[in-house]
Amino acid sequence: MAPEKDPDELKKGFCWKLCQSRLCLVLVFLGMAAGIAVSVPMVLLSKSLRERFAPDMKWWQKTIVYQIYPRSFQDSDDDGVGDLRGITSRLDHFQYLNVKTIWLSPFYPSPMRDFGYDVSNYVDVDPKFGNLSDFDDMLKTAHGKDLRVVIDFVAGHTSSDHPWFQLSQNRTSPYEDYYIWANGTTLPNRTIVEPSNWMSVFGNSSWQWSDERRQYYYHAFLAKQPTLNYRNPTVVEEMKNVIRFWMDRGVDGIRVDAIPYIMVSEDYYQDQARNYTATAVWTKPAYYITNLTKNVPDIGDIVKGWREVLDSYEDSDDDDDKSRFMIVELYDTPEVRNRYFEYGADMPFNFDLVTALDNHYQVHGNFCAAICIRDAINNVYDNLPKGKWANFVLSNHDNRRAASRMGELYVDAVNMVLLTLRGTPTTYYGEEIGMEDIFVSYQDTQDPFGKKYGPEKSRDPERSPMQWDDNKNAGFTNSSHPWLAVHPNYTHVNVEWEKNSTNTTTLKVYRDLAILREEPSLQYGLLKFTDVNPDILSYLRSAEEHPHFLVVINFGQVPVTHDFPGALVNRGQGRVKVVTSQAANEGRFAKDSSVPLTQIKLQPGDGLVLELAESGK
Ligand code: GLC
Ligand code: MG
Q: Which residue in the list 257, 346, 431, 498 is annotated as catalytic?
């Protein structure tokens, strides 16, 4: 028989084991802690590990946003005006393009004095465009194709036909203070004049007399676009309800129209000081220092309120990114734009590629080429607040088309820039096929702005119907009276032709770029300008452990042969991933061929996106 163990011995043995195992636990724990302590900073410091994984990006950072001007995109009922069913019938275009988000300019009931930017009912669809069930169909079909839909939110002003304005004008409660009303100034001779010298963006006084109410009301744009009074909490709530109405239907985001103008100073009687800019016209706001009528700080709280509404729709438990997007429209410096990031906008529109290009032309008489474009881009990145995401735009319904501004030769090149920068690009409909502005005589001018200031101020030229094919009216409508003329070049500038041609076309280049954009280096990788001279614009996009890309474009007027010194790019060869159409069609470069980086010959307008071979190869 085995001797029985002394219970104390047993205890001792047990304790010892326990002790041993505790010690072991402690040791394991300490080991782990030390491991974590050592590895965390290592992970944080290891650039390659950090960059290997895609950062946590929202859907609106990964997509191209495509702006549809509903009047001009596709007509489905042959009345010469585009509509929602028309848009629904064309959604496959975006799958072809690899575009994942569309933004629709206004389709709400409107007397169309500013073509929909004068809303008479925020929660319905204008009969010209269809009805709410057409909208729901469009949204459902779009979502079924993995397309996000952003709508225009004309926040600052309604149409004077809006019932709110009618009721405000006749002082019906609770609408009396829905708009900005003021008595005006009584002169010694008893005539009543405007309260102050505030000017409308569309010209002349922004104060309009109402005979009915016997007061002036304020309008930042047309007199028929009275500005809402956001100092009235009921108005604030009404407009939040408008957002809720569309979010409840499943809309993915809003583009807020003309944000700087939604509020004005409380002191309606204070004149604005002159700013003495040489070119300013006294009937336009630029003649004055507009701090009383533009970007007043109180707008911050309003935007914050909208952010809260949008965030209340975000479902964070879900893997699918349900965040609702807000982009606000303003033409201003980075410093002013950045305030809107702070207020809660995901992005303030950055129009620097539009304005820098135009201003450069006005000052220098030639268009903004490589150095000027680089400076404009650097200015955006240099002023971007930490953690915020950039965006770029080339044109829209208020600005000339890229082809008309830069010249046909450079169309692919500017699309190449737009789609290879770090930041969300917005493409105006038709830019993917290189559409050009139409000519509209003064007689035929539709835009109120053009009617008032002459055809050169008109925005009709860039709003002409989308060119789908070479049928009558480019496949936009069967009516013989499209609301604006189709550009005569539609026989060869159209989607169908550009898709099916055996040639390389602007559309195919756009699509190649849109697909390549999903590469990590192009989506979130760093951007570094390499060689830039008066002709050549070039930059490197790189995310570690992923293929890097070099973009090279000749924005000059003469052919150039460029040598990339090894030190900058550090690779011998590049593989052509995208090539602009003329360079491809004239046989200068072929997709997937290899190009020695020491000898890149580019004609004006030629551009390449090159995938770089591994270092040393
Ligand atoms: C925005 C729109 C423009 C419109 C104006 C007034 O700037 O983009 O088209 O005329 O607001 O609503
Ligand atoms: Mg129609």
A: 257
